[in-house]
Amino acid sequence: MLRFDKLAAFAAFLLVSTAATAQTRVDTIWSARYVVTMDAQRRVIENGAVAVSGDHIVDVGPRAEINRNYRAAARLDRPGAILAPGLINTHTHAAMALFRGLADDMKLQEWLETVIFPAEAKNTDREFVRWGTRLALLEMALSGTTTYTDMYYFEDTVAEVTRQAGMRGVLGQTVINFPAPDYKTPQASLAFLDQFLKNYANDPLIVPAVAPHAVYTVKDDTLRAARAGEPVRETANHSSFGNEEGKRRLNSGP
Questions:
Q1: pLDDT tens-digit map of 50-70
Q2: Number of folded domains in the chain?
Q3: In CATH, what number is assigned to the domain containing residue 208?
């Protein structure tokens, strides 16, 4: 009888070992009360989990299924949370978080010409952009944003701190027809862009872009030169002024 018990125990051990061996190793398993997949069926999985290896999602499904099929080096379990794809902020000037509250309730042109342009001329340098972007990245991460589209100055520094934060960015270097904080001529900005586009051409987190400021701050020849750079990220018009200026210069709408 004793020998039989030992054999049974050994057989059970083998079964457990085989089941464990059958599990696929992953780096992390995240689980939550609800997992929003955004797949073709737009599934929302109750008591769901996500298996992750490196920078890739390996599998998504019910928590019991993921736990059965995968073994993780680390876990993050949030039974009262929602796990969803990151939000995307499609229009930012991230470093300008440091200018928040500087002036309110003004028309765009008045705000730009009497407040923002003078403030940028006085304050905006590489370190201003570094710390302003860090603040904006922190605020975006806390709100669930993981990807953003930016247009500002010193975008190589913006790219640097974005990578450090582990976020994704489509980062547009401003081209404008008056002296800017980083480059004093549009030609100098375009020359910088050649290297900026090359440096981040195949980056997994950063998409470098050309960002003409607006139809009312960039001349036609500069706009044409900017079109030679790809991708081009032109900002949307902020007001009816931009619409009217576009109509006047191009005989068409934005």
A1: 999 998 999 999 999 999 999
A2: 2
A3: 3.20.20.140
Considering only residues 222 and 135, tell me which one the structure prediction assigns the higher pLDDT.
135
The whole model's pTM is what? 0.79
State how far Cα 231 lies from the chain centre: 16
Query: Which 3 state secondary structure label does DSSP give 248?
Result: helix
DSSP 8-state class, residue 201: T
Residue 22 one-letter amino acid: A
Count of helix runs (H) and strand runs (E) in the chain: 9, 8
CA distances from 192 to 168, 174, 210 (A): 21, 11, 10
Burial class (CB in 10 A: 0-12, 13-18, 19+), 8: exposed
Element (H, E) at 75: strand 70-83
Helix axes 155-165, 186-199, angle to 10 degrees: 30
3-state secondary structure (DSSP) of residue 214: coil
